[in-house]
Amino acid sequence: MSIYENHSLLLHNTFHIDCAAKYFTEINSIDALLELQQSDVFKSNELLMLGGGSNILFTKNFNGLVVKNSLLGKELIKEDADYNYVRIGAGEVWHDFVLWCIANNYAGVENLSLIPGRVGASPMQNIGAYGVEIKDVFESLEALHVKDGSKKIFTNNECEFGYRESVFKRKLRNQYIITSVVFKLKKKANFNTSYGAIEKELEVMGVKDISIKAISDAVIRIRSSKLPDPKVIGNAGSFFKNPEIPSAQCDALKQLFPNLVSYPLENGNAKLAAGWLIEQAEWKGKRFGDAGVHVNQALVLVNYDKAQGNEIYDLSSKIVESVKAKFGVELEREVNIY
């Protein structure tokens, strides 16, 4: 295991921000991670665990230790009459895992196709798309405590999942290193096609017999048409969360803005489409140097070439201020800021 000093992070974040880490290393095994935890560099520096770097914005150099999680492995560990339980290494590419599930007819994650990032970040963010969230297919995860290296198994309830939230983003932030995740996947698929444009896309594709592969293909086509490829244009997907507001406030807004896009929630509140709010505030497609708002999806901020992280962050701050001034709703960033 090698530890590099003043190491470029340009290739380790999907925003393509050219910054550096004071120290950088990559771990490929639990033994290597335990060995790293005993090192002086680990003990004396701020730690940042990095997967695919797909939900992070660096606004400056990182004055600490960046550890790239490359723990791999995909295996079926048990099954019952209704479910297959699979253990996946935290460093596995998320979309590769989804395709593996489809190839093995493990149902439940097909709606989450083409989401960038690694498996280990999925429960941290409780990633979701097209009516499915990680909490719906999550069984447990294994993690090592940062300080003493002790192993802990977290159940679904212990992760305290919320909308793009988990205990690892709040109460236990930077206290555990996720090493693997166990997913509970259905043997008999329960197709979820009602959200977004999946049904319409399936019709366009001429699909007669629905399957998890067909749903995955439809989601891939939709995402590819709406969202920029991080390999081509730097971005981290959705930059903001869809805000949740009281239903009374939503009703009042609809009096002023009849086309307001909103969704009722079980708790009596309403969720607003952040992309719609940003577009109505006239930010869609705007560009300031190499930092901008994507022309096809206002929820996505982009680095067209050599934008600095602080330029993108400043742009996000102006969007937050603008939306609040127009709608009285404050957007919250989904992307982690460093």
Q: Tally the structural domains.
A: 3
Q: Count every beta strand, where a strand is a DSSP E run of 2 or more residues.
A: 20
N-to-C span: 25 Å
Principal-axes geometry comes out as: globular
Strand fraction:
25-35%
Question: Would you mind describing this structure in some detail?
Answer:
It is a single chain. By secondary structure, this protein is of the alpha+beta class. The protein has three domains: 4-69, Uridine Diphospho-n-acetylenolpyruvylglucosamine Reductase, domain 2 (2-Layer Sandwich), CATH 3.30.43; 74-186, Uridine Diphospho-n-acetylenolpyruvylglucosamine Reductase, domain 3; 234-337, Uridine Diphospho-n-acetylenolpyruvylglucosamine Reductase, domain 1 (Alpha-Beta Complex), CATH 3.90.78. The protein has helices at residues 30-37, 40-43, 94-103, 121-125, 198-205, 212-226, 247-256, 274-280, 309-327; strands at 4-8, 20-27, 47-50, 56-57, 62-69, 74-79, 83-89, 128-129, 132-133, 138-145, 151-155, 176-186, 234-238, 244-246, 262-264, 269-272, 287-288, 291-293, 300-303, 336-337. A hairpin with a 2-residue loop joins β17 and β18. α5 packs across α6. The two termini are 25 Å apart.
